[in-house]
Amino acid sequence: MADRQLIEPDMDFVKKVGDFGGDTLKKCFQCATCSVVCKLSPEKNPFPRKEMIWAGWGLKDRLVTDPDIWLCHQCNDCSQYCPRGAKPGDVLAAVRNYSFMHYAFPGILGKALSDSKFLPLLLGIPVVILLFLMGIAGHLNIPQGEIVFEKFVPHYIVDPLFITVSILMGISLIVGVARFWNGMKHGVHPSVSKKLPVGDFIKLHVIPTLVDIFKHSKFMECDRNRWRYIAHLLIFYSFIALAIVTGIVFLGIYFLGFEHMLPLAQWNPVKLLANAGAIALFVGCTIIISNRLKEEEEKSKSTYFDWVFIMVVYFIAISGILTELTRLAHLAGLAYSLYFVHLVLVFYLLAYLPFSKFAHMIYRTVALVYSSYSGREG
Ligand code: SF4
Ligand code: SF4
Fold this sequence. Notes:
There is one protein chain. Helices cover 69% and strands 0% of the residues. It is mostly helical. The chain has helices at residues 11-22, 33-37, 49-56, 60-64, 68-71, 77-81, 88-103, 107-113, 119-136, 149-152, 155-185, 198-215, 217-221, 226-254, 269-298, 304-328, 332-351, 358-374. It folds into two domains: 11-103, Orthogonal Bundle (Fumarate Reductase Iron-sulfur Protein, Chain B, domain 2), CATH 1.10.1060; 107-374, no CATH class. The longest helix is centred in the middle third of the chain and has 31 residues, at 155-185. Bound molecules: iron/sulfur cluster (2 copies). Residues 38, 40-41, 47-48, 72-78, 88-89, 92, 222 line the site of one iron/sulfur cluster.
C-alpha cells in the first residue's frame, strides 16, 4: 500500500486568502478547465487547478514556495471559463498577496498596508515628516514671486529624506526577495539545475527574462484583454521615463551645476520626457481603473489592496500634471499645495513599495528567473 501523507490544513491561511479576494475558492470541483484554458500554464504539472486544490486544503507552505502563482498574469481567462464561478484568477491573485506578505520584511508594515484602517496613518507619516522638516527650515509659508518649488520644499530637505527612504526600502526588498528565492529553492518545484557561474546565470536566465518583461510578451499571450496589456505597457514605461528624469535632475543639481535651470523649460528634452511619462501614467491608470470597474461587474473582484495601489499611482500622475499646469497658470497657492500632496504620495509609493502591488513586479521577475533556472517554464 502506498505511503499515506498526513495533511495539516492551515485554516487561518484559507481565511486570509478569502479576505484578499479569493472567497470563491470553495466552489471549485476540480474539473481542470482552468488549467486547460490558461495559455501561460506549463504542460507539465500545469496551474491553476493544483493551486485551487492546495488553497482549498490550506496548504500554505506549498503555495508560498510555488513559482507558478507568479507565472499567472491575472488575465482571468480561466475565471471566464470556470463552470463553477470559482474565479481561479482571483484566488491566485489572493495567494500572491498572501505570499509576498509572508516574505515581506518587516512583516508588520505588510499587514498595515493591506488594511484600510491604517491608510490615514500611513499617509499621515509623510505629511508630518515633511511639515516638520519644512518647519525647521522656516519654509511653512507660501513663497512670494515666481513659482519655484525649491523655494517651498528645498532640495536639501527633500533629497536626503527620499534617499534615506530609498535605502531602507531597498534593504527591506532585498531581504524579502532573498527569503522568497530560498523558499522556492526548497519548495514544490525545487531546482534540479546545476549551480552556474554568475555570468552564465545572468546570460541564460536573467537577461532573457528581462527581455520578456520589457516586451511584455506574457501579457500578449493572454489575448482576452488587449487594453490591459496596453495599460501595463504604458505604466511600465512611464515609470522608467520618470525614473530617468529623476536621475538626470539629481545628477544635474548635485554634479553638473544645473540647479539654475530649474524649473526646466518646456522644450527641454528632459521636461518633454517627464511630461510624456506623466501623461502615459495617467492614461495607463485610467484604462486599468475603468477595466477594473467593468470586471467587477462581470468576472473579477478587486480588493482594497489592489485599489489603494492603483489609486495612489493615479493621484501621483494627476497631482504631478496639475502641479505643472497651476504653476504655468501662476496660481501659487494651488501649485504649492498640489506639489506638497504630490510629494506625500511619492513618499507613500516609495517607502511602502516592498509591501505594495509594486513589489509584485519584482517578485514576479524573480519567480520568472527561478522558473527559467529550474526548467519549470514551458
Ligand atoms: S477553478 Fe473552476 S475551472 Fe478550475 S478546476 Fe476549479 S471548478 Fe474547474
Ligand atoms: S488568470 Fe490568466 S494567466 Fe492566470 S491562471 Fe488564469 S488564465 Fe492563467
